[in-house]
Automatic annotation (TrEMBL):
It holds the Pfam family Band_7. The keyword Coiled coil applies. SUPFAM superfamilies: Band 7/SPFH domain (SSF117892). One of its GO terms (cellular component) is membrane. It comes from Hydrogenivirga caldilitoris. It is found in: Membrane. Residues 36-201 form the Band domain. Keywords: Coiled coil. This is SPFH domain-containing protein. Residues 197-229 form a coiled coil. InterPro entries: Band_7, Band_7/SPFH_dom_sf, Prohibitin.
Length: 287
């Protein structure tokens, strides 16, 4: 049996251009899936989306987001509380009011405003600690220390910490960063200055102690004076109420009580010559 090609029509031919386009589309889809067009922003972070290097002003909240591979990417920025230390080689040297060098070490607790993360990234990038926080703190420390002499710096640590925190807080808020707390870890003065301050403090404490003792003695002397005056007044009143007859009667009453006592053998009455001594002899026991 002979095959007649005209009897059965051929299926329509697909243009080679369409086939190539389909292959390209499939390849792009596979490439997109393999390049992971999804990004996850974890809790405690916000995302800054960059399209061809340009940052979007709208932050990406925590969750799943879709981006265009090779065209868009994201930078994750933490909005949790961070600590930034200025210690050791990064500690701050400041001049006091009396021209002495004071070394200060501290820790800063801060966090960025979640709805301003994109602006921080656009303005300062990810290195905002060195570009914002560090210079602001250094400036505040030097401003505060410059208003105090070395003795105040040595004694007023709490006040210094509060003053620095107040100034730093105002400056950082202008740059969309929230200050939680400034913690001063150490304040170091020249050793000779510390010794002089300690010696002065001990001398002041000794002076205060001596002043207290002097005041105490004054009060004690005043008390004794008042007590003596009271005794003198009482004696004056008593003396004014005594008469010769009363004294004689009282004297005889006392003599009588002595005479009646079984412990006395002789009682001498030291009085004027008109009085006769009373002699009480114990009875002799009969043998």
């Amino acid at each position: 049996m002979n095959f007649d090609p005209n009897r059965y029509p051929r299926p329509p031919q697909v243009p080679k251009g369409f086939i190539a386009l389909g292959v390209v589309l499939v390849a792009l889809v596979l490439l997109a899936l393999l390049s992971n067009p999804f990004v996850v922003i974890p809790s405690g972070y916000v995302g800054v989306k960059l399209t061809l290097g340009k940052a979007s002003p709208d932050e990406l909240s925590p969750g799943l987001h879709l981006i265009v591979p090779f065209i868009q990417r994201t930078e994750k920025m933490s909005v949790r509380t961070h600590s930034y230390d200025l210690t050791g080689l990064n500690s701050i040297n400041a001049l006091s009011k009396d021209g002495l060098t004071i070394n200060v070490e501290l820790t800063t607790l801060y966090k960025i405003m979640p709805d301003k993360a994109a602006e921080i990234f656009i303005e300062y990038g990810l290195a905002y600690e060195d570009r914002i926080i560090k210079p602001v703190i250094r400036s505040a420390v030097r401003d505060v220390i410059s208003t105090l002499d070395s003795a105040q710096v040595y004694q007023e640590r709490s006040m210094i910490q509060q003053s620095i925190a107040r100034q730093v807080r105002n400056e950082l808020e202008k740059r969309f960063i929230l200050l939680d707390e400034i913690l001063i870890r150490d304040i170091r003065l020249p050793q000779k200055v510390v010794e002089a301050i300690e010696q002065k403090r001990r001398a002041l404490e000794e002076a205060q102690r001596m002043k207290f003792l002097v005041e105490k003695e004054k009060l004690e002397a005043e008390r004794r004076k008042i007590e003596a005056q009271g005794i003198a007044e009482a004696n004056k009143i008593i003396a004014g109420s005594l008469t010769k007859e009363y004294l004689m009667w009282k004297f005889l009453e006392n003599i009588k009580s002595y005479a009646e006592s079984g412990n006395n053998t002789i009682i001498l009455i030291p009085y004027d010559t008109k009085m006769t001594p009373i002699i009480q002899l114990p009875e002799m026991k009969k043998k």
